[in-house]
Amino acid sequence: MSQWKGKTRGGSTGYAIFIFLIKHLGVNAAYALLWLVVPYFVVFAPSATKSSWRYWRRIHKEGLFKSFCRLYQHYYRFGQVIIDKVATSSGLESKYSFVFEGVSEMESVLKSDKGAIMIGAHFGNWEVSRVFMKEFGKKINVVMLDAEYEKIKEKLEDVMGQRSFCVIPVSQDNIDHIFTINTALNNGEFVCFQGDRYLNEERVENVNFMGRPADFPVGPYQLGAKMGVDVFFFFVVRQNGKKYKISAKRATRYLEADRKGRQKALLDEYIEELEVQVKSNPEQWFNFYDFWNFSRKQ
């Protein structure tokens, strides 16, 4: 079975080059370099390229020529959001603009002493939301499965400085993160999940997503159904130019289900919202692995 391995694609040298360009020549210079970098990844990242190709061909039903163009666009957009993540975290946030959709309910909670759960995805660029979040002074905890190489982390932290959120690491070896999450929510903090990836094959729910069966982790929805705090679906989508749309939608329908059905109802509500987002901006879906297990089905 194909499964995400817990590591994000990329090398420390590549990150260092982009960081240098951003700091010394500006964001546009870093974007320009992407035109040279993208063909390299198309050729020398065959597994990711194959997954992207299948995504366009089988999920979005694109033709051969258009899928090839989309493949390039997919990598280019991924590079852009990495550049934007670094830029907005290293003193260049004024170069970006933001529009908001449905965030008023979440703002009310951010201004209160109540905790809440946010569920996003490896879609768009949620990290640039720090520009919006830091205004409220609320402690933001991000539950991370992503075991990036330490050298990459160090290089990013050198240029980005102190993060505006705290990381709650998830390990397959223990359940310490569960206690940390509960404590954070009880203390009136926000806990953020990426609701589309998992490491433990036994803790998944197979659901229909974008017309194909796919596995999703049960953890975020199990906690959301049980903790008695507000749950928001949260997405940050890149638009034309240096503009981002930050949207938040409070989950409601799962509250109408009985206690046994709430977890599944919350997952279904999330899937419905995620589909809307992905269909609107398909090139910002950044799961470059065999998400739908096409290999298993062949």
Describe this entry's structure for a reader:
The chain is an alpha/beta fold. It is 45% helix and 18% strand. It has eleven helices and nine strands. Helix 1 (12-24) runs parallel beside helix 7, helix 3 crosses helix 4 and helix 9 (219-226) packs across helix 10 (262-280). 34% of the residues are buried.
What order do the SSEs take from the amino end to the carboxyl end, as H and E?
HHHHEHEHEHEHEEEHEEHH
Task: Please give the number of β-strands.
Answer: 9
- Radius of gyration (Å): 19 Å
Q: Which percent bin holds the helix content? A: 40-55%
Average pLDDT:
87
What profile does the largest beta sheet have? 7 strands, mixed
Strand adjacency order, main sheet: 1-9-8-2-5-3-4
Total number of helices: 11
Assembly context of the chains: single chain
Content of β-strand: 15-25%
Which of globular, elongated, flat, extended, rod-shaped describes the shape? Answer: globular
Weakly predicted, low-confidence segments: 148-152
Strand-pairing-aware structural class:
alpha/beta
Distance linking N and C termini: 12 Å
